[in-house]
Structures are given as C-alpha cells and as structure tokens.
Design brief:
By secondary structure, this protein is of the alpha+beta class. It has 16 helices and 12 strands. Helix 4 crosses helix 5, helix 7 packs parallel to helix 10 and helix 11 packs antiparallel against helix 13. The two termini are 21 Å apart.
Length: 459
C-alpha cells in the first residue's frame, strides 16, 4: 500500500515539474492579475453532479473575427458576437468585457459599444467606450490594449445603471433610479425578467455583441472576450482571489516530496555518521558528540523553528536547514548504542586482527549491520519534515514564493473559509498532508520485519 501511494506522489510530482514552471509561485500563484478572470470562492465543477446540475458554470467566451461587417454612411460597423446559453435558475456572479489589441488608422478614435440580446428578443446597451486618442508624436496604425488587455467589470460600472434604468422604463414601464438598480444587482436585470416586483432568471440564449464603430475598414479588435462569472470552476474550485486550487495542490506535491526527501536524507546521514563514529572510536570524540546531541535533543524544536524562521525569513532552505540542525540528535544516540554492541562482536575483532583500518571497519563491517535501521528511520523522518513545514506555513511562516498545502490551509483559515463553508479550500490540502505522511508511515511499517527479525511471520 505504501509503495503504491509513493508511486502516486512521485508520478504527480514529475507531472507537475514537467508542466509547471519552477517560478510558478512568483509568476502565477502570487500574481492577482493572472486570476482576475476567475470566479471568487467557486466550488468544484463535480459538485454540480450531486446538486442536480443547478449551479452555473463559469464561462469565458472569446472571438477574434467579426461575425458581421458592413459600411454605414462614412462609418464602418464590425460586430463581434458571443453566445451564452443560460440553462439553470441562477444569476451569474459577475460580468466582464475584455478587449485585446485594438488597432485603428484614423486620427478620429473609434467607439466600442456592448449590447446584449436576450432570449425574449429585448436588446440592452451595456457599455460604451471611446478609445484613447493618438499622441502628438504617434503615427498610424495606433495600437491600444496590446500589452495589457482592457478589462471592464460591468458589475461595477456606473453607466450601466443608467442603461438598465432606461431599459426597465422602456420595456416594463417601471421606474427605477440608477442607485436602486445598483442595489438590485446588474446581473439580475440583465439575465432576469421582472415578475411581481422581483427578478427571476430568464433561461435561453444571450447574444453579447461588441460593436466597433470606426471610420477605417482596416480597424479591428484583436480579441474580444465576455466572461460570465459562475458558481463552480475547475476540479478543486477557487479561493477568494480566484486562484485555481487544483494548481496550488498539484504544485504542493513536489514541494512536499523535496522537503521530506532532503531533510530526511541529511538528517539520517549526519545522525548515522556521528553515531557510528562516536560509538566505535569512543574517547573524547564520543563524549563531545554525545554532549552536543544531548543538548540538541533537549531543545524545544518547534518554538526554535518558529523563532528562527521569523528571524531569517520563511525561505525553504531556512526551514530545511533548521529541521536538519535539530533532527539528527535522536538518531545519534540510538545508533551509538547499537554500535557499542556490534564493535565487540567476533566479526569486528577478526577485521582488526587482519589489520583493517577503523574507517574500513566502520564502512565495510559496521554500517551494513545498521543500514536497515537507518533506512527505516530515514523514511520515518520524511513525514515529520512534511508536517513541520505544514505547521510553519499554517502559522504564516512558510515560504511565500512557493505554494504549499500548509499555506493554502493558512490562507483559508485566515479568510474565514471554515466559517463561510468553503470546505473545498480546507479539506483537500489537509487530506493531502495526511496522505503524504501516511504514505511514508506505511513504507516504514513494511520495513519493520527487515529491521526487527522478530516481527517476521513464519510461513
């Protein structure tokens, strides 16, 4: 079982390292602009299967080519259409228009308008934008929104409240002040129909049309996108920043494996080496090693770990260094006690009589006898290191440049995910921490019969 779990951890880690950049944490995870188009605190998509399909999926609808284009007097009209089908009795959580790479040739700037045609064939103007005028030293073609797309969160646009107020007066003959429309919610007016002083979702196809009104037929928009905020997103949902939690959880696999592997290997190498040397050579060297290990063993590890990471920063190498510095002492004491018994054996005495050096005896005759125990301890140290890093991250002392399971947990608790019912933000990282720890515990338990022959089963 443990080997199978370890195979899963290694496979996922390799996949993550191949598909994710090494600076993923800095470039993407901690970059709010990268997640701005995602819904906030959205549940995983598979939840919809258990709730009868009644939740609205997040949708991003893009087009790069105008569906219609024709002259109108001295102007040219280009229409970029986006079709959205509302199939559930839910309102979108937000509505965003994104424009990329507007190119125009005339000194008179083009106008961009956004309309929506609802399933009841009623059309609403949602937004109107005049592109930035050319600078005095600028020459055609004039390019706008190339480096950074123009994002318009329609849910926060004041002009939309006036458009919707006019729409309600014209179509339903009811008067709503723009401030009242804002309180009701733009999404309810756009995607709903008025019924007994309330708005209920209007199912069907919505056609969002971006109109480019210009003087030159060569003018164009490189890409237009309509983003309709949903209640579900991705395999593991999102946090309050819109970050895809499945990506953060995936990146946590190689980080956990790296921390556990490096810490356990260094800890066992240092502890086993000092234990073998001190136990076999003895004398003042042994006394010095034992006194140092006694001091290190009696120091409170977690408070010191918190203090040192607070002083030197929560960098990954700092955490690994501190874990190694305070983790080797226990192994030294146990290995030394084993060496004291082994060095008086007839095998060691025969090697000495043949003229073997101390280093050869320790490497060729003593180490192979304690190697199974050292290997099992190295595996046992791995989950301890993973849990220690998770504890530090949960306390807000982890490496902020790398997403880890502990950091995802900490950020969720800090933002009230438990009290708000965002279970998809809390349970998966916690379960993965337990899963990684149990993986190495199972492997270590499987090696116990090798370390302790008394546990072998007779067949």
């Amino acid at each position: 079982m443990g080997v199978f779990f370890l195979f899963i951890v290694i496979t996922v880690s390799i996949y993550t390292l191949i598909t994710f950049p090494l600076d993923y944490g800095v470039r993407y995870w901690n970059n709010p602009k990268y997640w701005v188009d995602n819904p906030k605190a959205a549940m995983p998509q598979w939840v919809n299967s258990f709730l009868g399909g009644g939740l609205l999926d997040h949708q991003i609808i893009s087009t790069s080519v105008p569906q219609r284009s024709y002259p109108s007097g001295i102007y040219y009209m280009k229409f970029y259409e986006h079709v959205f089908d509302l199939k559930v009795d839910q309102f979108p959580t937000f509505l965003t228009l994104k424009l990329e790479k507007l190119v125009y040739y005339s000194s008179r700037t083009p106008t961009i308008k956004l309309f929506v045609t609802r399933p009841d064939n009623k059309t609403i103007e949602l937004y109107r934008l005049v592109a930035e005028a050319p600078l005095p030293d600028e020459h055609p073609p004039y390019v706008r929104y190339a480096e950074e797309p123009k994002r318009i969160l329609l849910s926060g646009e004041t002009q939309l409240s006036y458009f919707l107020s006019e729409f309600l007066l014209k179509e339903y003959h009811v008067t709503f002040e723009p401030s009242e429309v804002t309180k009701i919610g733009y999404e309810k007016v756009i995607f709903g129909e008025l019924y007994e002083d309330n708005f209920r979702p209007l199912k069907g196809k919505y056609i969002f049309t971006v109109l480019l009104h210009t003087l030159d037929s060569r003018d164009q928009i490189g890409k237009t996108t309509i983003i309709i905020g949903g209640q579900i997103y991705g395999f593991m949902g999102t946090d309050i920043l819109g970050r895809d939690l499945s990506q953060g959880l995936l990146f946590g696999f190689p980080v956990a494996l790296l921390i556990g592997f490096i810490t356990s290997v260094l800890t066992t190498v240092i502890g086993a080496s000092l234990g073998i040397i001190g136990g076999y050579i003895g004398g003042r060297l042994d006394d010095a090693i034992q006194r140092i290990s006694d001091i290190m063993n009696n120091l409170p590890q977690l408070p010191l770990l918190i203090f040192l990471t607070f002083i030197f920063g929560g960098k990954l190498w700092v955490i690994v260094t501190v874990l190694v510095a305070f983790g080797w002492s226990t192994l030294v004491i146990v290995v030394r006690s084993m060496i004291l018994q082994i060095k008086s054996s007839s095998l060691i005495e025969a090697a000495i009589s043949l003229g073997a050096s101390k280093w050869r005896i320790m490497a060729k005759h003593i180490f192979p006898q304690v190697a199974p125990y050292i290997l099992s301890q190295m595996i046992f140290y791995t989950p301890s290191a993973i849990l220690s890093e998770a504890a530090l991250s949960f306390l807000g002392l982890g490496d902020p440049s790398i997403p880890t399971w502990g950091q995802i947990l900490e950020y969720g608790f800090r933002n009230g995910a438990v009290f708000l019912g965002y279970w998809w933000w809390i349970l998966p990282p916690g379960l993965l921490i337990v899963f990684s720890a149990v993986t190495f515990v199972f492997i270590a338990l499987g090696l116990e019969p090798v370390v302790n022959p008394k546990l072998k089963r007779w067949r």
